[in-house]
Design goal:
alpha+beta; 24% helix; globular; 187 residues; 4-stranded antiparallel beta sheet
Length: 187
């Protein structure tokens, strides 16, 4: 699952997503890798781990959603993620990704908390935290992505979640960061 490009059905509906952004310098490396594999979305979608996939919500629910995300962040503590190796959702979905060796259980717990209250929704697939590095490319490019990042490994701390809105311009815009309990990211 990725922060794919999704169009709202009306002016009264917005498309949102909630993610864990990948920090620097890992983000630049993964973005450049995705671009090198030929993925045109590399420039538009920053490297991330999806917690709430693109979800259409009433535009008037913004305050309730932000209150909900703030409450979720307030009961979540900082945790570490280790990215290691690659995997693929092929043939079901044309995606190659970097796997989470550590931190996947924290991501799963966090996304379950997020998908309650005003963001309650079912997922079309089981939740599988990952970082997309190739999406909808031809098989040789997908194979190259899976092979070239097979030995990739990086560890970093996660201190908050990020609330995005898919703008009418077709780009994802960061709306707000919510720091986890004790962290001061809330802006």
């Amino acid at each position: 699952m990725s922060m794919a490009l999704v169009r709202p059905v009306s002016e009264d509906v917005v498309t949102i997503g909630v993610v864990l952004d990948i920090p620097q310098p890992q983000a630049d490396f993964l973005r450049q890798s995705r671009a090198d594999f030929g993925d045109p979305l590399a420039a538009e979608i920053p490297p991330h781990i999806t917690l709430l996939p693109p979800t259409q919500v009433p535009a008037g629910d913004d305050q309730a959603i932000q209150d909900h995300l703030r409450a979720v962040a307030a009961v979540t503590t900082r945790f570490s993620i280790t990215l290691s190796g690659t995997g693929s959702f092929r043939p079901i979905s044309p995606v190659v990704f970097v796997k989470l060796e550590d931190g996947a259980e924290h991501c799963a717990d966090l996304q379950r908390l997020i998908r309650t209250g005003p963001l309650k929704r079912a997922l079309p697939f089981d939740y599988h935290p990952h970082v997309t590095v190739a999406h909808h490319l031809d098989d040789p490019a997908m194979d190259r992505a899976e092979s070239e990042l097979a030995d990739y490994r990086s560890t970093f701390d996660v201190a908050g979640l990020n609330f995005y809105e898919h703008g009418r311009d077709g780009l994802w815009q960061l709306r707000r960061r919510f720091g986890f309990k004790g962290d001061l990211l809330d802006t």
